[in-house]
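Morning, I've got a small favour to ask if you have a moment. I owe you a coffee for this, so here goes:

…
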Amino acid sequence: MDEKKMAFLPFGGEDENADPQTTVKVKNPELEAAIKVYAKERSVDNLNDLLRAMQRSRVLVPATFGKEARPIPIFLKDKNQESYLPVYTSIEQVPEKPVVPALLNMDYESVNKVGADEKVNIIGIALNPFTDNLIIKKELLKKIADHHENRKKMETETRTIKLTEVQYHQVSRKQFEFNNLPKRFYQEGQSFVDAISEEKETFLDEFYESCYQDQRMYPYLPEEFSVMPMGIEEDLMVVSVDFPARYENVPCCQRVYLTWNAKEQKGHYYTIEYTENKEVFNLGEITSEGKHIEHGVAPVEGAQLQAIIDLHKESFGGN
């Protein structure tokens, strides 16, 4: 490619020691390898490897110039006239024609933010659209953006308060049990219920670990969880989830119940929460909007399931 025909933004040195953030000569061998592996076998593990590689990468995005010479990403349209944001892993992946006015060197988090923005009318991003053409849809981009936002909140909380190791795990529990887990449950619905019912403790453990700000500090093992799916009625599935008996604190959960009405494709996330009195637990709920609702003192363990079923049915008019 004749680089003199293109105006690069930002543009740095041409030597090997050029700042990776200010050069078009980015290199992403790990990301390129992960793209090919995932394209060949679209498994959960391969997707996680791909996402991790993306989040560590800087990539190139073609752009034009708007008002006050501000760069604006250029989108591609497919045969159905649906728009995608093209993202290139290296200068070699950028087509020679048509020549674009500029190339933006961007960290992946910034690219993901553009792709996830509801105001940006695109279907998703296309990684190396003229070779690999791996499409990451907006729905997944939004989940990644949520993960980035949660991570930033955790980093802010960690910087604001000097946490001990125990406090760090307690904060992580609260974030996972009251935010990460219910948010994913409500976002994915039936597919989430199917996945956790099938893979049980392994699924929960892997998801929990992925939510840790520093995954090297993740303290739990799959056998410390207990996941029990129960088909109560034709249109009612309940999944009980018991959390590890380590780093429990107030507020966090001893157990949660996920209820799911397959006919209505709706469900609820109920919590059995620790209190200062170790003999007493509170019954709560996290709504699809992330609001916490209190339902009073939780019944004893043997009566919890029926109380959860009753609450669930009341929300559907007693059915």
Observations:
- The first strand starts at residue 58 and ends at 65.
- The helical segments are 29-40, 44-55, 108-116, 138-160, 165-188, 190-210, 301-315.
- Residues 1-15 have pLDDT under 50 and may be disordered.
- The first helix runs from residue 29 to 40.
